[in-house]
Prior knowledge:
The protein is an alpha/beta fold and 408 residues long. Helices cover 23% and strands 27% of the residues.
Amino acid sequence: MKDNSLRLDFYDYDLPEERIAKYPLAQRDQSKLLLYQSSIIKDQRFLDLPNLLPANSCLCFNNTQVIPARLFFRKPSTEQGLGALIEILLLHPIKPSSVMSEAMSTQHSVIWECMIGNLRKWKSEQVLEQKLIVANQEVTLQAKLVDNTQKLVQFNWDAEISFAQIVEAAGKVPLPPYLNRENTAEDRQRYQTVYAQNPGAVAAPTAGLHFTEKVLNQLKQKRVNFNELTLHVGAGTFQPIKENDVKQHNMHSEQMVVSRGNIEQLLNPEQTIIAVGTTSMRTLESLYWYGVKLSQEPNADFQVDKLYPYQDDAPKHFSRVESLQNVLNRMDRLGTNTLVGETEIFIFPGYKFRVCQGLITNFHQPKSTLILLIAAFVGEGWRKIYQHALDNQYRFLSYGDSSLLIPS
Length: 408
């Protein structure tokens, strides 16, 4: 029987263009904060966060760092005029490694899967190039389209410097398409959390944009625990759902990096686990389901498919502690303190949360995967929350205001 509650049009609402925050506030922590706890809504400021969290809270942050992933190359000029402009958006590293940290530190040559603007003007195997100044030296950066179908681009450069340095010198910040504006110099710093440290995201974990050193220090004084994981946010986070049966949506895959320390901290059953952002929530819930996979296949790859949590053959009786202990045991067998994996997990109404008890997040687009996640977490209360935000002049989307959601 078809579940009509999973029709896309159930997750629509009217978002006027003027409610989308096109630019950040002058001060990060001056944003509004909507507190939703036990079905009650209160209007707060983000600065109030340290006084609003439950006792024994553990905030789980996504410490990915946004890279300037938009690269531009100009084809050679012809007698007819200036050559076509080719825009390349880095998505996933392919060679010499698919692990983001290794790809970013690679020198001389890499291959990435990309989105390509003006693709029809770029022939396979055609080399484009540009001159850069990196680390006080002139560098020639070349781009060659090596696979037109998969949109694989090989980058080569003639210097002993990393791809991270190349991107920093050549690229632009990939702002969300709904901002509908060009980058400013301010975006390099403001479309980035203050705790970002692992380069690889092409979209910011925007729930974290409100944090300042002042707020972080106050949280430490309140003895709030911090747990920093990494999920490299991909461009797929902005991919619209086109199917009215949301389960048919082609969910994007994102790379996760978790440490032994991350998991050991999550094993404490006394903590209230609060995800800072939907990306942290996806990582935490994916960890649980990876532990479940390991109960069935002890050597399973660290990968969570989009509908695995809903499959009849996926055991659902494991506690958080039991499942995460399976992950630790896997680390022991591998002799490692770090795991790198991929998740496509799709969280929509009907999902039972296994790790997260609270969520800090911004206000999301209608009919998006993120609004489905919110509806899964707070139930029908999402409509009340969003209507309150609209009625009370909250700012929406990436540079918008914040919320703290604690359903029970």
